[in-house]
Amino acid sequence: MEELKLYTYIAVFGTFALYFAIAWWARASSTSDFYIAGGGITPLQNGMAIGADWMSAASFISMAGLIAFLGYGGSVFLMGWTGGYVLLAMLLAPYMRKHGKFTVPEFIFDRYYSKTARIVAVVCLIIASLTYIIGQMKGVGVAFSRFLEVEYDNGLYIGMFVVWVYAVLGGMKGITYTQIAQYVVMIFAYTIPAVFISLQLTGNPIPQLGLGSTLSDGSGMYLLDKLDLVVTDLGFKEYTTANLGGTLNMFAYTISLMIGTAGLPHVIMRFFTVPSVQAARASAGYALVCIALLYTVAPAVGAMARLNLMNTIEPAAGENLVYDERPQWFKDWEKTGLLKYEDKNGDGKIQYTADLATNEMVKVDRDIMVLANPAIANLPNWVIALVAAGGLAAALSTAAGLLLAISSSISHDLMKGVLTPDMSEKNELLAGRVVMTIAIIISGYLGLNPPGFAAGTVALAFGLAASSIFPALMMGIFSKKMSGTAAVAGMVSGIGVTMLYVFQHKGIMFIPETSFLGDMEPNWFFGISPNAFGAVGALVNFGVAFIMLKVTGPAPAHIQALVENMRIPGKVSAAHAH
Description:
Layout: H1 2-25, H2 31-36, H3 43-54, H4 57-70, H5 75-99, H6 104-112, H7 115-147, H8 152-202, H9 207-210, H10 223-233, H11 247-262, H12 265-268, H13 277-295, H14 298-313, H15 328-336, E1 339-340, E2 363-364, H16 369-376, H17 381-419, H18 425-448, H19 459-478, H20 484-504, H21 534-552, H22 557-567
Helix pairs in contact: 1-8, 1-17, 3-8, 3-13, 4-7, 4-14, 4-17, 5-11, 5-13, 6-7, 7-8, 7-17, 7-18, 7-19, 7-20, 8-17, 8-18, 10-14, 11-19, 11-21, 14-16, 16-17, 17-18, 19-20, 19-21, 20-21
């Protein structure tokens, strides 16, 4: 145990020291450095940084955990997040890079020639980003509380301090180089345990292939067939066919995650850091490769973690594990409160079933699956320590990107763009750092006291971005006649309808603690869950905007010319870079 602690301290604090050193070396000295890293990042560097920005605690810690418990239903996260990235890379990023401004609200201000549109965009961006940060903060708290054996709250404070140092000091420049280091840490931390476990279970060192292979126990049974058998024996839904509520809900959930992803400002901002439109396209390609390295391993990690968990609790058919003989990893996670057992029948054995009345595993937090997986599989201590460092890198890298998106929208868009246009560059840089500090304090508070509507899911953040920012950007680029008034009406109605629906159903955010999903709520709109409602919000946004366009008339001629310029390859945009 002491050896594991030592390895964990070395891995975690070693990577922290690296992040601090990079932040000091790449500290921002101008607003251009602070917002877009001076515009001089190479496509490969940007691709790795996007990969790290992308792979949040939700991707690294939660996604495989969701797949582990939801089976096929969990694939909405893989399809939605990856599909959204393709949308962003193909339809939004190159055009916005060509326009050449710092932030998403600034693009919306130029395109819709309206300060109101800019303010609405800032509000939508802050709501979506803060909701998303809560998930990252939970990831930091979970990883710290387990691996450094500190209280969840104290773990969160340490994480806040680390982000504050390198994000406030370095701005986008420091964050970019730190994210490159975090990507390397993450990819090793995710794939090395997966290789070990795939070898152990199937004899195949490639996890993606191991998932479809036969088990190495001589039974000749395929891994997924075995998993289906184990979970259905206990009354859970079949792993390979279980879906989220219904086909329409699965579709809406995937679309909501997809267009929400394409509308998340902290990833769009990354495309402003490269020197040209061509570099933006190239960095999109590199990023897709970087993301695929982790995303194609996630289904294998999820399935293998679930099988190992079931085999631990029920080592032989019909024979449950005696609680007093539970393994060390079980005791370690019990201390965090994320794993709880209650002896309902008094036999001292752990009974894990889908029936809530007899199920004695009263809490198995999905977020522990990736972090506990190496210990469940009895992997070496250095691998367990590496996973801890990777989980923290994932949460911190995305938190930093989100905080920068929030601070730039307030200091650059709200303060300099609307309230005090005469602000000097020095004061704007100071304002950016002060706002980021405040944003870290607020997000830390929300991490300690997560509001009910955001409990356990970041899917809501995607729904909010899907219903507000994405349609405004799409219409801004592909509908040259779209007017400012119509776009504002669309954004307000889209995010309004989504938030109204979410608050109305806030007690039933989709995924309960057990993997049994139960029936759909009777009062859901066409069976669509609150987490998937962003797709409906987006339709409302588009619909209201085009109806209002008929009433208000088209955008002025010079705006239509600006959109034409933006869409013609090689032609310099009317709104040139700073």
